[in-house]
Design brief:
Rossmann fold, 2 domains, six-stranded mixed sheet, three-stranded antiparallel sheet, elongated, EC 2.3.1.45
Length: 756
């Protein structure tokens, strides 16, 4: 990858995604809202100086601050703009030619007694071509004039941001008779002169006049839509204004999805400590491995001198010690985390904005569905939602969600609503799976709880440290963690009601239903009492886990969005296990779940319900309104899918091993995509191979899936060490974990203080 300044790329190169979305080369452009623009430009003075094209850019720029501004007033005169609420002044100064008048105005800003503008945007040439009828003498004079202005602009560039806008091409066929002398050949000659002369005296200096040449590329694609062949259409002007805003504001506002012009963030104290830890782990593992290899060589078979026969060694391959396994896991994890950091924190690889088209979402969906059907095998057991089936379910859902994220399909509301059902289905499985385990096994021990919490949270905790992100940023893991704790607390709380106890007395079933009713009441209360919810999660140290951008609103929103589906999963598990115990369902291989008549009726209702939800989701007009209904209706499509998948015996008896393989690493895939498949914390796309989008996706996907699989194995290995079955050893490990998190909180507090 040829490195370079992303600001230069933003100002000079890029391409259109579709008709209106501009993609700068190598970086991502943030779309600034009015409030963000005001926060960035507060107390700033910006000046646009030049001709009618610069005036157009001026209007597009101030509309980013105040969209209500109208293009009115004297077109061939100065135009002031002021936003008093943010103390922002933006002036347009009418200087259509690069001449003595423009030089005098620029020179006045270089004097110490005059307040210099913070941003200066200048450019002119077409008037010189028009007035002098495209003569060569006019071009010569232009070169002389810009040569006299260049040192002044370079002097201003030491304290202000100075941009020289190159002239856009014209659409010659549409030009009026009075403008026919303005040709693209003439414009290119004026642009070449400006580029050659500007910064000629300060090529090795950081204080340079920034040449705004990207407008030429934009104009080449859009000038044919111009009203007069000279001035750009409004969408192109708006793109240029947004580029200007990104160049200046990204380093100040640091938007996640605006990687252009953002410097690499400095390493935090916690990141430095993590780097040291992984470095020592790698060194330690290499040393231990070398010692073991050396011992193994010495114990190799050697020739018996007397008999001449080969004697086998008494010592076989040495057993892997706990320390070696620990160092081996951390060694691999350290290398993987280095890749994470390089992909999404270092300015090493390119990042691009997402751009949604129907084909970019639906074609990959069809492709993976065909692959999934191709890898069909018989299940080991034919129970409803058996292990292979739930792995398959997780797998295809995760692949669909990944395609949804990389294609930017969240902008298409029907797809968004269906993806919301898939996320709800994951939580449904959380309720179903954990309830079934506790109900059947009756195991409420600390070991089980620690195993689940470790497997869920290990990767996210490491990423919070390495990538300097809050826990709530990876919202799905906090969600399933909290719901697991709620399920555990509900069932473990006195009286503990499990299947074995309930089989002895049917009244215990009513006791469990009473518990579930109380849980539903608590969920209902918290979902409509934002204040109470925020108070619970605003207590320290919970606030450190669930705050995002200084408040817990995002956490409340995520929790509320799927608030009932875990309860639905628990209730479904209870009803299913009760029916199974009373042998009211048939789960034999190839047998329908119920009698033929009941099965057919239920199958028909399920298909109709499934399609009805899809039709409703397709007719959604407003995301907010649909999100309000989603918690109550998402269970309809989930239950419909379960019945369609399990009622016919022949469908229940097979599964896709392709989807099931991905299902086993679905959590790792969901989390890893944030940084090594997508980019800028899921806002963009990682580009490892520029210029070849399809090949880039293939390569980055292969690495991403391999990394997710490896992390899954590392998590399983470490879970055996960190969470042992022996209670006394487990207690010691828990004290170590508590000490680790206490140290993390301490370092985090020191880090926050140093930032402020």
């Amino acid at each position: 990858f040829k490195g370079g300044d992303t600001c230069e790329y933003l100002l000079s190169s890029g391409r259109f995604l579709g008709e209106k979305v501009w993609q700068p080369h190598s970086c991502m452009m943030h779309k600034y809202k009015n409030s963000e623009a005001k926060n960035c430009l507060i107390d700033k003075h910006i000046v646009f100086i030049g001709d009618s094209r610069i005036r157009q850019l001026f209007y597009s720029f101030i509309k980013l601050i105040n969209p209500q501004v109208k293009e009115e007033g004297n077109k061939h005169g100065n135009i002031p703009f002021e936003d008093k609420s943010a103390s922002i002044k933006v002036d347009f100064l009418w200087y259509p030619e690069v001449n003595g008048s423009m030089r005098q105005r620029i020179k006045s800003w270089t004097e110490h007694s005059v307040a210099k503008p913070h941003i200066i945007v200048a450019g002119a040439a077409t008037w010189s071509i028009k007035i002098h009828n495209g003569s060569n003498e006019a071009l010569t004079q232009y070169k002389i004039n810009i040569t006299s202005i260049a040192p002044l602009l370079e002097k201003l560039a030491k304290s202000s941001d100075v941009y020289w806008v190159l002239q856009d091409p014209v659409y010659e066929d549409m030009l009026s008779e009075s403008r026919k002398m303005i040709t693209n050949e003439k414009i290119d000659a004026y642009n070449e002169a400006a580029v050659r002369i500007l910064n000629s005296s300060s090529r090795n200096s950081k204080a340079k006049v920034k040449v705004f040449s990207v407008s030429k590329l934009i104009a080449q694609e859009t000038i044919m839509k111009s009203a007069d062949g000279l001035h750009l259409p409004e969408s192109s002007r708006d793109t240029n204004a947004m580029i200007l805003m990104n160049v200046y504001c990204n380093k100040i506002m640091k938007p996640i999805d605006g990687s252009c012009c953002q410097p690499q963030p400095p390493l935090t104290l916690i990141q430095k400590l993590a780097f040291c830890f992984f470095t020592f782990s790698i060194i330690g593992y290499i040393i231990i491995n070398l010692i073991h290899r050396n011992n193994y060589r010495k114990s190799k078979s050697c020739t018996d001198l007397e008999s001449g026969e080969e004697r086998k060694p008494t010592i076989s391959t040495p057993n892997v010690s706990t320390l070696e396994m620990l160092l081996h896991s951390f060694c691999k994890l350290g290398l993987i985390m280095t890749y994470f950091y390089l992909c999404d924190r270092a300015n090493l690889f390119m990042k691009e904005n997402k751009f949604y088209t129907h084909s970019s979402f639906f074609i990959p969906i069809v492709y993976i569905l065909v692959l999934g059907v191709f890898y069909t095998e018989n299940t080991k057991e034919t129970k409803v939602l058996n292990r292979e089936q739930t792995d398959e379910w997780k797998g295809w859902m995760q692949l669909v969600i990944l395609i949804y994220h990389i294609s930017g399909a969240s902008t298409f509301l029907p797809v968004y609503m269906h993806i919301r059902v898939l996320v709800a289905a994951y939580l449904f499985q959380t309720g179903y799976g954990h309830f079934s385990y506790f109900w059947i096994k009756g195991d409420f021990g600390v070991y089980r709880v620690c195993q689940v919490l470790f497997r869920l949270n290990f990767l996210v905790v490491v990423l919070c440290i390495v990538m300097d992100r809050p826990y709530q940023f990876y919202y799905f893991v906090p969600l399933v963690t909290v719901w697991f704790i709620i399920i555990y607390a509900t069932l473990a709380m006195w009286p503990q009601i499990v299947q074995k106890k309930a089989n002895g007395n049917c009244l215990w079933h009513f006791g469990l239903l009473l518990k579930l009713t109380c849980l539903l009441a608590c969920i209902y209360f918290l979902s409509y009492s934002q204040g109470a919810f925020e108070k619970i999660f605003s207590f320290w140290p919970l606030s450190k886990c669930f705050e995002l951008n200084g408040n817990v609103y995002e956490w409340w929103f995520r929790w509320k969005l799927d608030r009932y589906v875990v309860f639905h999963g628990m209730l479904f598990a209870f009803i299913y296990l009760a029916l199974q115990k009373r042998q009211m369902i048939s789960e034999g291989k190839g047998d329908p779940l119920f009698s033929n008549r009941v099965s057919n009726v239920l199958l028909f209702i399920s298909i109709v319900s499934f399609l009805t939800y899809s039709i409703w989701a397709g007719s959604c007009k407003n995301k907010t309104e649909c999100n309000e209904l989603h918690p109550s209706v998402s269970v309809v499509q989930i239950l419909a899918f379960i019945l369609i998948r399990n009622i016919p015996g022949y469908i229940r008896s097979v599964y896709s091993s392709f989807f099931a393989w991905f299902g086993k690493i679905s959590l790792e895939l969901f989390i890893c995509q944030y940084h090594i498949w997508l980019a800028a914390d899921t806002k963009g796309i990682l580009v490892l191979i520029p210029g070849y989008p399809m090949f880039n996706v293939l390569v980055s996907t292969f690495i991403f899936v391999c990394v997710a699989h490896e992390i899954s194995q590392i998590t399983n290995d470490l879970a055996q060490i960190v969470v042992p079955k022996d209670n006394s050893t487990l207690l010691k490990r828990l004290l170590c974990v508590a000490g680790f998190f206490s140290g993390l909180l301490l370092f985090s507090a020191v880090q926050d203080q140093s930032r402020h």
